[in-house]
Amino acid sequence: MNKWIQNVLLAFIMSCSMTALFSSTPYFWMKLNIFHIPIVFIVVFCLTIGIAEDIRNSFKKVFKFEKRKDKRPIWEVGVGMIFFFSQVGFVEVFGRHLMGYELGGMPLYFVFAFMNAFLLTVIYEELFYPKQSKIQG
């Protein structure tokens, strides 16, 4: 379940990035929607769901996750990053009207995404990460 959630969120991040990148093009077919979901998003999501596991494993190899004695800090940063970028991608593709608000010069959706990512990481850790006391005891 843990891997499945991470893979779906990674595919969501990649498809939101590609959709936001291509949404400013002048081509009509790039702006077609089905129930307010861009067709480009649907196609790219179907393609990236297959490579999300490989992307996640390549990040683990780059950061030498399996060789670390204490895997917890990098695990928390990785999951927090996934939550942050999935919320930012959601706003960039589905809630572009929310991008105009600012808080002291910083886009407000960044602030909310950062706060939500922190809270979601703590909740996610409680659900999926084994307690340190059980491991040491």
The proportion of residues in beta strands is: 5-15%
Number of strands: 4
Binned, the helix content reads 55-70%
Main sheet summary? 2 strands, antiparallel
- Counting H and I runs of at least 4 residues, what is the number of helices? 6
The helix/strand series, from N terminus to C terminus, equals HEEHHHEEHH
C-alpha geometry: globular
Largest sheet strand order: 1-2
Q: Please state the CA-atom Rg, rounded to the nearest Å.
A: 17 Å
Q: Kindly report the average pLDDT value.
A: 80
| Structural class by secondary-structure content | mainly alpha
Q: Which stretches are poorly predicted, pLDDT < 50 over at least 5 residues?
A: none
Distance between the termini: 26 Å
How do you describe this structure in short?
The chain is mainly alpha-helical and 137 residues long.
